[in-house]
Amino acid sequence: MPVVLVRIDDRLVHGQVVEGWLKAIRASWIVVASDPVAADETQKALYLLAVPQGIKLSCLSILDAAKAWGDESWKKERVLVLVASPQDVVALVNQGAQMKSVNVGGMHYKEGRVQVLKAVSVDDKDVAALRTLAQKDILLEARPLPLDEPIELKPYLDRWQQDREVLRDQPR
Fold it and tell me: The domain 3-169: what is its CATH number?
């Protein structure tokens, strides 16, 4: 299969991806699957500057990325697909992209999110999307860098749900 890694990382193309993951998985092509990036020429140009010479870069809408997933254009490549959120992965899957696992690498803290692991902070929408992927038997692996120990994310989602129920049931 030409897609060797699907990674959720809200920063998309950056140092960890370029210096860590590209080399480790020997990717020849980065696909940024993002509707906002696909529509923004400035962002696409900036990401192109961050990619090493010899590595292809495509910034595609979710729909176009899902279409390319199944056609012959990636047949002889080693593709790293980057998305900004779990919701984008669900959208890819709903459009026909097939995957066995997702690397959850960078979902950084911002207001409304709760940190569940180093570099993984989630809100209710993120958890719902991650649960949807887990229900489709897609392995969710939290792992910032290739040499880091992989952590299966599903038990943390279960704990998130339990913690939310306890907090909801407490008197105010």
Answer: 3.40.35.10
